[in-house]
Amino acid sequence: MASGLLLAFLAGLVTILNPCVLPLVPILIGSALGTSRAGPLALGERRKTPAALARYGKPLFGAALVMVGTLVLSGLDKVLEAALLDVLPDSLVRFTTRF
């Protein structure tokens, strides 16, 4: 058990030392401890934005999923794809269908 905890601790240290994660460490520590200078301001004001995104984003995302599902089940997705292939420039079609 102790060796597993030591291994988890070392893995966490290695993760923190990753260059992509390193700039986030002060923010995470400040948020966790609640002693960051900008922590209360930055976190308090930005709580409204995710709520607004969720309020408007969920119905829009749901409607988009229903629309795509309807297109696939009715077979109209193939018609839409063919129409878009005719309209799009050849360079874009080659780029998007290359792989």
Give the tags.
99 residues, single chain, membrane, mainly alpha, transmembrane helix
Proportion of residues in β-strands: under 5%
Question: Which structural class fits the helix and strand makeup?
Answer: mainly alpha
Shape: elongated
Biggest sheet descriptor: none
Distance between the termini: 47 Å
Number of strands: 0
* Residue windows where pLDDT falls under 50 for at least 5 positions: none
- How many distinct folded domains? 2
Organism: Erythrobacter sanguineus
Protein name: Cytochrome C biogenesis protein transmembrane region
Keywords: Membrane, Transmembrane, Transmembrane helix
Transmembrane segments: 58-76
Tell me what the structure shows.
The protein has helices at 2-16, 25-33, 39-45, 48-74, 76-87, 90-96. The protein is built from six helices and no strands. It has two domains: 1-46, no CATH class; 59-99, no CATH class. The chain has 99 residues and is mainly α. It is elongated and about 60 Å long. The model has no long low-confidence stretch (mean pLDDT 75).
Structure at a glance:
This protein is mainly alpha-helical. It has helices at residues 2-16, 25-33, 39-45, 48-74, 76-87, 90-96.
Produce the secondary structure layout.
Layout: H1 2-16, H2 25-33, H3 39-45, H4 48-74, H5 76-87, H6 90-96
